[in-house]
Amino acid sequence: MNWRDFLSLSARALVAQRLRSFLTLLGIAVGIAAVILLTSIGEGIHQFVLAEFTQFGTNVIEIAPGKKGARGGPPGLPSTSRPLTLDDARALERLPGVTAVTPVVWGNSEIEGNGRVRRSSVYGVGPAMVDAFTMRVRSGQFLPDDNANQPRALVVLGATLKKELFGTQNALGERIRIGGERFRVIGVMEAKGQFLGTDLDDTAYIPTGRALALYNREGLMEINVSYQEGVSSEQVSASVTRLLIARHGREDFALTTQADMLESLSNILDILTAAVGALGGISLLVGGVGIVTIMTIAVTERTGEIGLLVALGARRRTILALFLGEAVALAAVGGLIGLVAGVGLAQVVGLLVPALPVHTPWSFAVLAEVSAVLIGLAAGVLPARKATTLDPVEALRAD
Q1: End-to-end alpha-carbon separation of the chain, Å?
Q2: pLDDT tens-digit series, residues 340-374
Q3: Does residue 137 have a pLDDT over 70?
Q4: Distance between CA atoms of residues 224 and 309, nearest Å
Q5: Phi-psi map region of 5: left, alpha, beta (phi>0 left; psi -120 to 50 alpha)
């Protein structure tokens, strides 16, 4: 049988049973559409979360007191580890490849200003914080490079905090009170927006030395080190580790690179996307079962046709290819319909729910279409093999 006759015979067989073919297409299309829609939502969330984390830069190493995996009681109990100090931060600034170092202490306090009171986050940071985390000052200036141990009582307000306390008035030069201490406003930050539900602009930035006194702390909560583009994070981490061990006498601190955090987060989100796609794959599997059922019925209904083809000299492999081709064609066409429907639904969801990030991963789209073809091929094997085993004489007699 030449290929034209083969295609013609397959097409007539599919068209002859329009309802049956349509239902088979529908089963596969629904499965593919579900896979595309769910993976689009999962990938959109994936990219959104990664973008939220990378808005502060990626060349950052976080140093926290206490070694990872160290034995001891629950957090908050006295520790024998040496606290991180402002002197440690100054020593880290001299390491090769390091561009910015900011010691950090944070807390939550009532902030009074312009006759108003608001409880907000207060961060004690160094003057290099804007460089380490790619943040910008909208008006005024950021914290100056004062004596780290005895800095002036200066504060920079986040956009939300400034608006809540001073509205549209100019806040520069005004005095505010944080936890009972008076500070002078010297700058207002550009708005950063929400980060995983937290308002990054509802914040006040004061010198680290002032924050240590305000919250009665002996050591820093963390030190953030930013390094040059192109420099290996492993190289900088090794330099930081050697320096702090020399200063502390042992490794009583923990390092976490931004790349490590992003990699761990990306792995978790990849699993989430795959799990969501697998849920849609259940519908695709149901569509495959539908192909098996429909093609098995087709073999029974076309027993006489199969017998006639064999009697006329058609080879067993031709019969096998005929039924496999019909199953694959149904799955492929259904997959394309589902692909278009899934992408369309994803775009509609993105328009109707702007807060829900949606991004269609084309690699998943191609994989879904290939999966549809493979499912059609696998689902058509049993019915096709059954067709090749029919005895032509019995098949013609049954007709």
Answers
A1: 23
A2: 888 888 888 888 887 777 887 777 778 777 877 78
A3: yes
A4: 77
A5: alpha
Place of tokens 């307000």: 157
pLDDT at 71: 47
Helix (H, G, I), strand (E, B) or coil at 317: helix
Phi then psi for residue 109, to 5 deg, are -145, 160
Structure tokens at 159: 């956009």
Is residue 185 within 8 A of residue 142, CB to CB? The reply is no
Instruction: Provide the pLDDT for residue 73.
Output: 46
CB 109 within 8 A of CB 179: yes
Strand-pair category, 253-257 with 60-65? antiparallel
Tell me the C-alpha distance between 42 and 98, whole Å: 36
> Which pLDDT band, with edges at 50, 70 and 90, does 119 fall under?
very high
Q: Which residues touch 393 (CB under 8 Å, ≥6 apart)?
A: 307
Please check the confidence at residue 79 and state whether its pLDDT lies above 60: no
Q: Which long-range contacts (CB under 8 A, 24 or more apart) does 22-26 make?
A: 23/290, 23/294, 24/287, 24/290, 24/291, 24/294, 24/330, 24/334, 25/330, 25/333, 25/334, 25/337, 26/334
* Residue from 376, 390, 397, 393 nearest 295 by CA: 376
Residue type, 165: L
Neighbour count for residue 80 (Cβ, 10 Å) = 8
Q: Which of 7-16, 37-46, 129-138 has the lowest mean pLDDT?
A: 7-16
The phi, psi pair for 269, rounded to 5°, reads -70, -35
Q: How far is CA 67 from CA 81, 219, 221, in A?
A: 8, 15, 13
What letter represents residue 34's amino acid? A
Amino acid at 136: R
Quote the CA–CA distance of 132 and 159 in Å, as a whole number: 19
With beta carbons less than 8 A apart as the criterion, state whether 88 and 138 touch.
Answer: no
CA proximity to 303, closest of 381, 237, 394:
394
Q: Are strands 60-65 and 98-113 parallel, antiparallel or unpaired?
A: unpaired
CA distance 215 to 352: 46
